[in-house]
Amino acid sequence: MTEDEQKKLHLQTNKLKELNNEAYGYFKLYSEGEKAADFIETVKPFADQVKEELDEWKPLALEWIKWKKPPYLHPEQIDQMAENFEILSVTCFQKDTKRKKLTERYKSIEYTLSLILQP
User: Gene3D superfamilies this protein is in (predicted)?
Assistant: First the structure.
């Protein structure tokens, strides 16, 4: 893995961390407020953005795991994290989403991303 690819992976990982925090913010806004999220204006663009970022990030992350061989991160975790993130990107807007389940997803995503950013 080249140095440029590593830099790109770190930038994309930080972007995903920002999106994860944004999703948690949406959850707080829409689970506690009276207002419902507009699907076309808010939900779909956000979910599409998360999907695009993940599609670009995932191959780099998998390549990095093969190259770096981190002891606490495996390809299956990347797949699971991507799936959890796609679910989170939609459920964060739903009023009936359980706080504990969403919070656990958020923390799991955060943890996996932080493992990639470790030196």
Answer: YppE-like
Please indicate, yes or no, whether the overall pTM of this predicted structure exceeds 0.70: yes
Name the one residue in this structure whose structure tokens are 């991160």: 73
Determine the Cα–Cα distance for residues 65 and 34; give it in Å rounded to an integer: 43
Q: Which structural domain range is residue 96 located in?
A: 3-117
- The pair of structure tokens assigned to 86 is 């796609």
Task: Kindly report, residue by residue over 21-67, the tens digit of the pLDDT.
Answer: 999 999 999 988 888 999 999 999 999 999 999 999 999 999 999 99
Q: Is 8 exposed, middle or buried (0-12, 13-18, 19+ CB in 10 A)?
A: middle
Q: How many domains does the chain have?
A: 1
Kindly report the average pLDDT of the chain as a whole number.
95
Angle at 31 between CA 30 and CA 32, to 5 degrees: 95
